[in-house]
UniProtKB/TrEMBL annotation, chains A, B:
Pfam families noted in UniProt: Cupin_2 (PF07883)
Full protein name: Cupin domain-containing protein
Domain (Cupin type-2) ranges: 37-97
PANTHER family, per database record: 16.7 KDA PROTEIN IN WHIE LOCUS
Length: 121, 121
């Protein structure tokens, strides 16, 4: 029940594509991540996933289109939908995610970028 | 799967203490509200509730203390904990909430401020 400062939490880690957990709400978690470049095509069979962009511009690639999500915007990726977040021009994009605690980082895919543990900060 | 601009959504309603739904993530919803003055003491027996402050300063009163939550900060009110959000100096505070679809506006309390329907915007 202590206020959590989002900007301050972003100073606590630097690696790209490494989610860090800042809060839990029932069976969901709030995580922060710094994205740069391209991630991995994947989907989450059973979980929706919300991306709120805090800094920069996120290019959320779907198989049939790319949605541009700017700072102050959010997008919900429905369960089962293949997606691949990426950023352009070497920009580091800061995002806050809401998702089930059970959500696997790269869903059904195993990749060198896959993280299985999200440190609490 | 369309990006949602949070500021733009806030222009779509004006009444204080009237939550509006902007997204659903699994069995949880993202709602926006404009708060001014004092709300109502209540708790949610079965649901946690996340408040992210987008504009202004929220004073989250608990029975034993008040937490000050500024723009760019968030606070999670655990299930069962009595709380009463308020603002000071007639400030209108904008918040984004993340909570179960089942969460009742004023929990176990009925009050003239209680809303039972959150319009989708």
């Amino acid at each position: 029940m202590t206020p959590i400062n989002i900007q301050q939490k972003f100073t606590k880690f630097s690696k790209n594509w490494h989610p860090h957990q800042i809060a839990i709400v029932d069976d969901m978690q709030v995580i922060l991540a710094k994205l740069k470049g391209e991630f991995v095509w994947h989907s989450h069979e059973h979980e929706d996933e919300l991306f709120q962009v805090v800094k920069g511009t996120l290019y959320m690639q779907f198989r049939d289109k790319t949605e541009i999500v700017k700072a102050g915007e959010l997008i919900v990726v429905p369960k089962g939908v293949e997606h691949n977040p990426c950023t352009k021009d070497d920009e580091e994009v800061h995002v806050l995610l809401f998702e089930k605690l059970s959500t696997a980082h790269t869903g059904n895919v195993k990749h060198e970028k896959t993280q299985t543990h999200y440190p609490k900060i």
